Amino acid sequence: MREVKIRAVHEHKKLKDTIAELLRKGIAAGKTRRPKTPKPVKLRGGFVPSTEDIEAAINWGRD
């Protein structure tokens, strides 16, 4: 609360206006969501991924 009061003084604003602004910014920041990550793939039949398979999976995750 002390930091908010100091911020209000430095910005020449009322405390209630500074609190309202910070709340609006916090709510707006919370609206952005990260994309869902795909479920892990279950391997069957003793498949061992190659280095190329692993690199392709890593690069796919970066896109």
In words, what does this structure look like?
This protein is mainly alpha-helical and 63 residues long. The chain has one domain. The protein has helices at 2-10, 15-30, 51-62.
Strand content: under 5%
Query: Which structural class is indicated by helix and strand composition?
Result: mainly alpha
Apparent shape: rod-shaped
Please, how many helices?
3
Give the helices and strands as they follow along the chain.
HHH
Query: How many independent structural domains?
Result: 1
Q: What's the main sheet like?
A: none
Quaternary structure type: single chain
In helices, the fraction of residues equals 55-70%
What would you say about this model in short?
The protein is mainly alpha-helical and 63 residues long. It is built from 3 helices and no strands.
Q: Which features would summarize this protein structure in a list?
A:
mainly alpha, 63 residues, rod-shaped
List the helices and strands and how they pair.
Layout: H1 2-10, H2 15-30, H3 51-62
